[in-house]
Amino acid sequence: MRQIWDIHGGVHPPENKHQSLQSPLGTIALAAELVLPLNQHIGNPAIPVVRIGQRVLKGELIADAQGIFSACIHAPTSGEIIAIEDRPIAHPSGLSAPCIVLRPDGENRWTDLHPCDDPTLLDHAALVEKIRRAGLAGMGGAGFPTAVKLNPRSTDVVETLILNGTECEPYITADDMLMRVYADEIIQGALLLARIVGSPKEILVGIEDNKPEAIAAMQTAAQGTAVEVVVFPTKYPSGGEKQLIQILTGKEVPSGKIPAQIGVLVQNVGTAYAAWRAVRYGEPLIERVTTVVGEALTVQRNIRVPLGTPVAHVLEQHGFSAAKCARIIIGGPMMGYSIEEPQVPVVKTTNCIMAPSHDEMPPAPPAQACIRCGLCAEVCPATLLPQQLYWYAQAEDFQRLENHNLFDCIECGACSFVCPSAIPLVQYYRAAKNSIRRLDAEKQKADRARERFEQRKERIARAEAEKEAKRLARKKAADEMKSRLDEQKPAAPLPDPVAAAQEKAQTVPDDADGQSKKLGRQLESVQSRLQHLQQQIAECEDAARRDALTAQLRQAELKLEDVRKKQDDLERGVSLPLDQRLQNVAQKIQASPLEAQRNAVATIEKRLAVAVEKMEDAAREQKPTLAAFTQGVEKLRLKLAEAQAELAELERQPISSDSVNPEENAAAAAIARAQAKAAAAANMSAEEKHAEQLQSLRGRVDKARAKLAEAEASGSEHIAALRTGLEKLQAKLAELEQGK
Amino acid sequence: MIDLLLTYPIISALIGLCGLSVFFGAVLGFAAVKFKVEGDPLVERIDELLPQTQCGQCGYPGCRPYAEAIAGGDVINKCPPGGQATVNKLADLLGVSAPALDAESDENTDVKKVAFIREDECIGCTKCLQACPVDAIVGAAKQMHTVLADECTGCDLCVEPCPVDCIDMIPLPTTVKEWGWQMPKPAKGPHIIASDKDLIASDKDPARDRAA
Fold first, then answer.
1. Taking CB atoms and an 8 Å cutoff, what residues of chain B touch A394?
2. CA gyration radius for chain B?
3. Residue A135: which CATH number?
4. Both A332 and A442 in a single domain?
5. Partners of residue B50 in chain A, C-beta under 8 Å
6. Can you give the residue range of the structural domain that contains B84?
7. Are the Cβ atoms of B192 and A89 closer than 8 angstroms?
8. CB A651 within 8 A of CB A598
9. Is 60 exceeded by the pLDDT of residue A402?
10. Is the N or the C terminus of chain B less surrounded, counting Cβ atoms within 10 Å?
């Protein structure tokens, strides 16, 4: 007989295990729909791999593990996926969470399984993978993914494998029943798990002494194997992982560490059974043994229930009376939680469904003041000081709570159970733990926010600095340029832009060369625009847009004509300023007729060339103006021929000034007369000049008198004007005569 | 020299005292240089307690400026995102009595909110991007913007600049993962003992009174 150690504290609540052990392990009819939460375990929720409306077979994967710290979910029976949505789940919060909803087709047809006749042939990795694919999670109540637990850190050598068959919580008998019925498979599972974790020195199955039948069955099954069944006195909460380790090995798991760090691995018997089924038969975890108990039921027993079965359906199958039932509890009376919504599903960790009557589980008496009796400290299995924790939790003194190892509390409820003032101590600890976790999370978030804020500030400051640097560089460059300009013309004041523009405006029109260049540029741009527009019209398909484009084209054509005309004018000198034109005229006049004729011929030739070009353009584009152009070209040709004939004639004649056409030379003659007169006036003496003026004035007075007489005779309306003109002339004449 | 000191012990005492003061002065001077604390440690500690929403509701441009202001003597109840809990913690740190939170609205500040952009209405103006103190909004000009809910501090500084009012502050839903047990509510009224319970029940039930 091996040595058994004791744990500190502990309580002995009424066991109440006999009710559910009267009937053998049963099964129930399939529910109308199965609800499978994606997160039935600790860790990341699984990811659905099925579509709504998809038909699945029993044991088919419907949600895959998300990362290592997760577990797969399989279809508990064959049927159709009818929804993937939020449904209420078995959780103390009563909240909803994402679930896959399966409607069974009643055929219960298995998918292809991959059994393994001899698991001893498989290596460690293959075994762990099989267990991972089967979606195993700890079935004692916490739901820790089994595959993770079977892969301890390389530094942690497992010396003791413990199967937990303690089941210390009152009312629950699921593991008891499992051990009675499937003892052989549990032992096989124990050996399998031992092989996976590297054949530890000891393989122990811990069972409390209140389960004699299970002990007998397990001992029989364990005979001849390395598995040792250890029986120890019943006490709540011996089934806690750390408590069980202490009872069986005498070793205590240090605060904040896990059992693997002291060479111990604990698995629930249900997990061992599921692991064996998964490896040997390839069956995934799709059902579990659950205790259904409570005086509000007519049948109280253990059943094998497919995962996802709504609690309401389970209760219905056991003669549930809602009137009698005080509340529905998931888990045991010590650590379980009540649920409001009976439609929540059974999951991998649901080991008990309780429907107690009002007498069986009366409401908790009102909490009273703590009388500091210290009973709670006596019963605490974790050797904490519940009373101190209670004070600090009330005062929300989280620092002190942590100093008093709040996080070592396993929330077993022994302290609340013994409290004479009925203080819900565990609820205080849970709330305090939650607050601490929340504050930690908030602090982390605040730190991240602070970091992001600082980084943002830095970034903005950097951008500002860059901008400032650029601005300074630009300013510097501008200053340099300015100083260089100042050096070049130190005295010159800054040019006034307005004056410069005015000057330019004045100079440009005078500059014929510049203007012709400008016209050339205009011509080019208008032509290119024309081409562009034509291309656009050709490409355009929208009628309205084509119309608009055509209008634009017409405008451009007009402009083109205008520019061409201007150019022609410029060439001919029409648009030249007046004095320049006068010069041209004078040049023409002074030029010999031969030269003039030659110029005329050249001009006509030029015009003809332009006209021919225009005509060709028109012909190419088949414009209606073609006829007009053709006519114009013919006329120009005739003119050209005439001019050329004249030119030929002129060339044949000898060059002489007499031959100059008198009409053409009238202006020249007038100029010559005026010039001669001016020269004569310059040569005359003052008296002669005076006599001359007098004479001419007398002549003018005579003429004016004659005109006046004529006007009086004809009765003209200009008589008055003529008379004043005459008077003025007479006055001038009198003045001149006096001056003589 | 020794004779002189022996003759006038007062001089030797003076010399000894002067020597000691010079020595300790040197030690203190060295320590002041060697162990000089950069910045104001109080500001750091106050900043630690502030919620870092950078919302500016206190009237300062961010949490750190407010921490500096508190260190400089400003009142500690100007932080609505932190709520009364932050005020209490600050009071604890500074050793003053905790004033009530100076919140203008009686909104429940315990509910965490995050900004949410109605994306089909967003015109991509980048105004909210510039307003966000923690760069929690992603987007570009004329592109749709969206809020990184994990990084959003719920300061609602982005709501006001939006020209099309497409930003909502929505309360974060409680998920199973974030849910936690609440503290049991302390019993109302005077504490009673268990044997009083029946008495109280009979007080409430007139039928029972009649039966009695």
1. 183
2. 31
3. 3.40.50.11540
4. no
5. 446
6. 45-94
7. no
8. no
9. yes
10. N
